[in-house]
Write a structure and sequence with these properties.
five-stranded mixed β-barrel; 18 helices; EC 3.1.13.1
Length: about 775
């Protein structure tokens, strides 16, 4: 046993006085060597360790053997000539800043990490009085890292040495070969210019390839030039348009080999440690084209005489935690992706197909592991109690929304007929009860129809439809909401860490902006910080069926905060719920997997529960999955824009009915309701007056006439120009301006504000 040594100087683990007293036969313990390597990662070569402990002769041979043993045991790894603790960061590392903790301290992850478990968290230190740029969320930095002794905090602190410049000069484009043999880069971003590529900078690109290029400095004449950095794929293949969004938003879409290997090696879960629910006729109700099924439902009247008219609703969710354990390659990749991304022509899944479409998918007639919640409701729709169970289930039927609805409406088929009375009608009876509770709760009820793009086999647009909103959709939605609430209540009651789905109330600034806008329509909104969704619903109800219904719905939507994930609960404003957590879609959302693990740990439901290490990282994880959700939404929206633009590219000079979807100083954004696509009308192209922007009224009005255009107005437009791969369209306004609502006083106030603004920023609009 080595003697305990305290104090060190310049890398030596002992003070000068201590070294003088150490006998020649001193050999450090394994723990002392491991601690020295962790604390001195830049002086961890074999010679440096021997020097630090004053080892000579045979002791150096002993040290060599010990270090080899530590490597064989997996406690040390060797990089070049230096040794590091397994999974430890190098003393200088490239880090990605991903969020902040509760005190505002920046948190980072290593850009590359191959160690065991999940990547460590690094708290970024900013030196007082430091000159130069300060790093922020989303930056990549070079930093010195230092291990900490705080088991409850980040594993490391980091001192930033350099902030890497973002490769803003690298852009995506489509490589085109023109008839004369020259090369061009067709832009895929709306403000990106066309580029010329000289032959020596072609880099193997072929016509139709999606490429990453580096623009050169623009010459005084002609188009700017660029060189091809990398070929990312061919747009002549299927699913070409979504590939642009995948690369533009840096969405991981190829599973690493170790992730695929782990998924393929997974074995089906067994009944061991589970309740046997295979005789319960749970059914899945999903879109007709769904490939994975992660939720199943069942309901029955409550026979308890103390709860007359009550119901028992059961929701079973695929037990993904049975297959995805914390810190494994599958888990790290799932966290990296955060969620599945849904494009019209493909899905980029969070989990490999072996897991998402096979082992975890609640297939009809096949045994599948699930975590189920059984909820009892009163006749008024108030939840009385609930319980969670880890079960083995067998789906009695795979149904599509229209199919289930048709059965209830009196047109059952061969599959729904036999279960109509025993399964479907009790489900609808339970939904009627839950709906009473929803109506009493008064969540925010915005009327915003969703469009779906149907594609041809070649990946181009066939047509755009607005699917009918059926009671079958609403039933599943309400069952899932109640299951999510039950999960949040259980975990909070057990004081188990979790990630909440939170939605803040509109900020006071947004409330005031909305209030000013509603005043222009003769509507009022009560003041006060404690807003409730019911107050917005009252406004929406007053304009239902009116000409300005779409306008008010749009402005109310834009006044809302964005939902996100957080380990700190502030409630969900839109749903008007005090506690809410995503539990029902663990196949496609990492947040739900965390909640599943929390339930397993809190209720003692077996292996796969939330670990302390994972619980300590929830702040960081919440920031990551909130960011991946926003990334997915942006990529999905961009893809829809590109598909519709390509679809309409052959309809130049056609006229369309449109709705104004945005108003800015620069002009009007218009949406084609039939297609759900947006285009732009520059203010300089508006005829007949000099147009001024009124932010309060969301309008552009003529200085001379006071007439103009307002958000949500229905107008007629002509398509003038399309850039398909950029998803950009330019229109011409055909509709005449109209008198805007509001008093003459409001008009003059807006005019005065606009004049004051334009005295600083220059004129807008044009007069003809």
């Amino acid at each position: 046993m080595a003697r305990r040594i305290s104090g060190r100087s310049h890398g030596d683990p002992r003070s000068a006085d201590t070294r003088a007293k150490v006998k020649d036969d001193y050999r450090p313990s394994r723990d002392e060597i491991l601690r020295y390597i962790a604390e001195n990662p830049d002086r961890s070569g074999k010679r440096e360790i021997a020097k630090a402990f004053a080892l000579r002769g045979e002791d150096r041979i002993w040290l060599k053997d010990l270090l080899r043993d530590l490597q064989d045991e997996g406690l040390l790894t060797k990089e070049r000539k230096r040794l590091t603790r397994a999974g430890a960061l190098p003393h200088v590392a490239v880090l990605d800043i991903v969020g902040r903790d509760a005190d505002g301290v920046l948190l980072a992850n290593p850009s590359e990490y191959t160690g065991p478990g999940s990547p460590p968290v690094i708290a970024i230190r900013i030196s007082r009085g430091a000159s130069g740029p300060v790093p922020g969320i989303g930056d990549r930095v070079l930093a010195k890292t230092f291990p900490t002794d705080d088991p409850a905090g980040p594993a490391y602190t980091g001192r930033v040495m350099k902030i890497f410049e973002k490769r803003s000069e690298a852009v995506l484009g489509i490589f085109r070969v023109l008839k004369d043999g020259s090369f061009r880069i067709e832009p895929v971003e709306r403000r990106q210019p066309e580029l010329i590529v000289d032959k020596e900078f072609q880099n193997g690109a072929k016509n139709g390839d999606l490429v990453e290029v580096e623009p050169a400095r623009a010459s005084r004449y002609g188009l700017p030039r660029a060189k091809v950095l990398a070929v990312l794929g061919s747009l002549t293949s299927e699913k070409a348009v979504s590939m642009i969004a995948i690369h533009a938003h840096d969405i991981p879409h190829v599973f690493p080999a170790d992730v695929i290997a782990e998924a393929e090696a997974a074995k089906p879960a067994t009944l061991a440690g589970r309740e046997d629910w295979r005789d319960l006729p749970l059914v899945t109700i999903d879109p007709a084209d769904a490939k994975d099924h992660d939720d199943a439902v069942f309901a029955t009247p409550d026979t308890d005489e103390k709860n007359p008219g009550g119901v028992i609703a059961t929701v079973a969710i695929a037990d993904v935690a049975a297959y995805i354990r914390y810190g494994t390659p599958l888990d790290r990749e799932a966290l990296k992706r955060g969620n599945s991304v849904y494009f019209p022509d493909r899905v980029v899944p969070m989990l490999p197909e072996r897991i998402s479409n096979d082992l975890c998918s609640l297939r009809e007639g096949e045994d599948r592991p699930a975590i189920a919640v059984r909820m009892t409701f009163s006749a008024e729709g108030r939840k009385l109690r609930h319980s969670f169970h880890r079960v083995m289930m067998k789906s009695a039927a795979k149904l599509a929304y229209p199919q289930a609805q048709a059965a209830i409406d009196g047109v059952p088929d061969d599959k729904t007929g036999p279960i109509l009375d025993s399964v479907l009608k009790p489900l609808w009876d339970a939904y009627a009860v839950l709906k009473r509770g929803r109506n009493a709760r008064q969540p925010l009820e915005l009327d915003l129809p969703e469009r779906k793009i149907l594609l041809k086999p070649d990946g181009t647009v066939h047509r755009v439809v607005v699917p009918e909103r059926l009671d079958a959709h609403k039933l599943i939605e309400e069952f899932m909401i109640q299951a999510n609430v039950a999960a949040a209540e259980t975990l909070e009651g057990k004081k188990e860490p979790l990630v909440f789905r939170i939605h803040d109330a509109p900020s006071l600034a947004k409330q005031e902006s909305l209030r000013e806008f509603l005043q222009t329509l003769g509507l009022s909104l009560a003041r006060g910080a404690q807003m409730r969704p019911g107050q917005f619903n009252g406004i929406l109800e007053r304009v239902r069926g009116a000409d300005n219904e779409a306008l008010v719905n749009e402005v109310v939507l834009r006044s809302q905060s964005q939902a996100e994930y957080s380990p700190k609960n502030i409630g969900h404003f839109g749903l008007n719920l005090r506690r809410y957590a995503h539990f029902t879609s663990p196949i496609r959302r990492y947040a739900d997997l965390i909640v599943h693990r929390g339930l397993i740990a809190a209720l003692g439901l077996g292996p796969g529960g939330l670990t302390q290490q994972e619980a300590d990282r929830l702040e960081e994880v919440a920031a990551l999955i909130s960011a991946t959700e926003r990334r997915a939404m942006a990529a999905e929206r961009d893809t829809v824009d590109r598909l519709i633009a390509a679809y309409l590219a052959e309809r130049i000079n056609d006229t369309f009915d449109a709705r104004i979807s945005g108003v800015t100083k620069a002009g009007l954004f218009v949406q084609l309701p039939q297609y759900g696509a947006d285009g732009f009308i520059p203010v300089s192209s508006l005829d007949g007056d000099y147009y001024i922007y009124d932010e309060t009224a969301r309008s552009l009005f003529g200085e001379r006439t006071g007439k103009g255009y307002q958000l949500a107005d229905r107008v007629e437009v002509r398509l003038l120009e399309v850039a398909p791969m950029a998803g950009a369209m330019r229109f011409e306004m055909l509709s005449d301006p109209k008198p805007l609502p509001g008093s003459r006083r409001s008009f003059h106030k807006a005019k005065g504000r606009a004049r004051a603004s334009q005295s600083r920023s220059g004129p807008r609009g044009r007069r003809r």
